[in-house]
Specification:
single chain, 450 residues, alpha/beta, 44% helix
């Protein structure tokens, strides 16, 4: 009997072992799908980098990229947000207010709802205040943050500076144009001096527009009515002065003629451009030709910022805990990580491998001012394009003048209407009063705002 029991036990154990060995390994969990919407491949490239360096997070990226060139991005993004089909999306300065404070603000998930201790994170990273202002909803929740800091400076050609002013020293040029004075008086004196030497102080009126626009004390809409801030109205006279006196090459920004002035191939030599660090890295450097390395930076007469992209989470990201946790990790890495492992540090120091444009060399890195003061304090901004000058010496303090409280969700369209009328006045096609009246009528027709 004992023998029979022993055999039975042995068979039972063997059967159990066989059964255990024959079991299939547990299937790996399906990756969590993260829906990302963007108007360029910039944010998608960042998230792909995040995915490669965070293999412990099991997710699959589904990317939708629609350019803003033909105003096609927002009409596609809005219904996707309304349907809860967007986890992460980008919005640029021209229209970000619609998504953080305007008509579409309710579709943005507050960072705190993702599980981010936002107040502690903002303090630790020392995030630029204007980017926080722009990304804060009417309820007081941070729903979007940028990764760049886009305070602007005057970027000038050293050889042209020597021709006109006898020096290319940034401090001397800054004094000549009234850099940091918050006044345009010295700049116009410098424009006249450039004119005497056959030099255009800027390429076109678009080069000064962003300084006039961003220095305004109030936005286009105040208490539900159209408001023409005196500092923006002054752009009429500034544009007219450039045209009447031949102080520019009368180009329009983002055209071939504008790019030509960056390599001194325009009608007259061009002294400089107004813009943030990204204008150097992503526009001028690729269009400078033989002038590469012959540029420098100094303070603008009037403080301003231009551009930037904000990263938001759609409420679709709150659908389940895995999706929420991954979205949280991605957004923190892009916008709030002040360590050398985060996106901000590699972006500032030119160690983020990035490819701009078809055929661009992916080994060429760029440096940029970023939104974290903590990161900027440990970063190096020397550029060959600037003859070895450290651009952060100027671009970082420039961020202090950035005002995020004079924007509206209508800025992109209203700015276009305004600049069309200013150009018509500057070219002598209509009177000053007619240009203002036609601008106001255009806003009323488009938005019903008087």
């Amino acid at each position: 009997m004992k023998k029979i029991l022993t055999v039975l036990c042995a068979l039972t154990i063997a059967a159990a072992l066989f059964t255990g060995c024959s079991k299939k390994p547990a299937a790996k969990a399906a990756p969590t799908k993260i829906n990302l919407w963007s108007f360029t491949d910039e944010i998608p490239g960042m998230v792909e980098k995040f995915k490669a360096t965070h293999p412990e997070l099991n997710f699959e990226l589904e990317t939708t990229i629609i350019a803003t060139t033909n105003q096609e991005y927002e009409p596609a993004l809005i219904p996707a947000l309304q349907n809860g089909d967007v986890d992460i999306y980008g919005a640029e300065a021209a229209f970000v207010l619609k998504y953080t404070q305007g008509d579409m603000a309710d579709y943005a998930a507050p960072y705190k709802d993702l599980g981010i201790d936002i107040n502690a994170a903002l303090k630790k990273a020392d995030i630029a205040p204007y980017t926080v202002d722009i990304g804060t909803s009417p309820k007081g929740d941070v729903v979007g943050l940028g990764y760049q800091a886009t305070g602007g400076c005057f970027i000038y050609n050293r050889s042209v500076a020597k021709t006109v002013f006898g020096t290319d020293d940034p401090k001397a040029i800054e004094a000549a144009i009234g850099g940091g004075s918050q006044s345009w008086d010295k700049f116009w004196e410098a424009a006249a001096k450039c004119g005497e030497k056959g030099v255009a102080i800027v390429s076109g009126d678009g080069d000064i527009w962003h300084a006039y626009e961003a220095s305004a004390d109030k936005g286009w809409i105040v208490n539900g009515k159209l408001y023409l801030d005196p500092k923006r109205e002054a752009f009429l006279d500034a544009s007219k002065a450039l045209t009447d006196n031949g102080w520019s090459n009368e180009t329009q920004d983002w055209t071939e003629a504008w790019y030509a002035d960056m390599q001194e191939a325009g009608e007259k030599p061009c002294f400089g451009f107004f813009g943030p660090a990204w204008l150097i890295n992503y526009v001028m450097a690729g269009n400078a030709g033989d002038t590469y390395g012959d540029w420098a930076v100094c303070n603008s007469p009037v403080g301003f910022f231009w551009g930037g992209t904000w990263v938001l989470a759609g409420k679709g990201a709150l659908k389940d805990e895995n999706k929420k946790a991954i979205t949280k990790a991605i957004i923190e890495w892009i916008t709030l990580d002040p360590t050398s492992d985060g996106l901000l540090y590699s972006w500032a120091n030119g160690t983020f491998q990035w490819k701009y444009g078809t055929g661009a060399d992916p080994s060429v890195n760029t440096k940029d001012t970023v939104s974290s003061g903590t990161v900027m304090s440990i970063s190096n901004g020397t550029l060959e394009f600037l003859g070895g000058q450290n651009m952060f010496d100027y671009f970082v303090p420039a961020g202090a003048y950035a005002n995020g409280k004079n924007l509206t969700q209508y800025d992109s369209d209203i700015n276009a209407l305004w600049r069309d009328q200013v150009r018509a006045y500057a070219n002598g096609q209509k009177s000053r009063d007619a240009a203002i009246a036609d601008f106001k009528q255009g806003v009323a027709d488009k938005f019903g705002i008087n």
